[in-house]
Amino acid sequence: MLMAAAWVALEDVDPAAGPLTYFVGSHKLPFRSMQDLGCDGPPPSYPCYEGRIREEMEAAAGQGSVFPQSMAPKRGDVIIWAPNLVHGGSSVEDASLTRRSQVTHYFFEGDALYVRPMFSTVTGDVYTSRWSAKGEAPRGVILDARRGT
């Protein structure tokens, strides 16, 4: 997948607000879809997906192939990461705090792969969009595409 993401801190992130956590080295692991992890439903379950990814990261960390890293960026800091980097917000200790940010995903020319775990289905080596129960397209543009690395 030819993609990069940029996370821009719009304010100083207090560690009690749940700093950004990522797994160093996880971008080198194979992409895992909801189907790969047995979480595609019906209906698809993001908590299942998140839990299974967490289990895989813990196992990989135990083998030394990845390790968790947290950061509390300052206003104006920009974090750029590669596709497939496992990341998310840490537990929030103080719900009165925020971690306002702007996140942008950049897809490069020649790459039509845009996967959203809840709305993408894998058949062989092709991703296709999954429509909602109401017959509406999910937000964003999802194209059929060959699996990439």
Short description:
This protein has 149 residues and is an alpha+beta fold.
Give your account of this protein's structure.
It is a single chain. 11% of the residues lie in helices and 28% in strands. The chain has 149 residues and is α+β, with helices and mostly antiparallel strands. It has one domain. Strands 4-1-6 form a three-stranded antiparallel beta sheet, with no helix packed on it. A hairpin with a 2-residue loop joins β7 (120-123) and β8. The longest helix has 17 residues, at 46-62. The protein starts with a strand and ends with a strand.
What is the strand and helix layout of this fold?
Elements: E1 3-9, E2 20-24, H1 46-62, E3 67-71, E4 78-81, E5 87-89, E6 101-107, E7 120-123, E8 126-129, E9 145-146
Antiparallel strand pairs: 1-4, 1-6, 2-3, 2-5, 7-8, 8-9
Observed structural traits:
single chain, about 150 residues, alpha+beta, 3-stranded antiparallel sheet, 1 helix, 9 strands
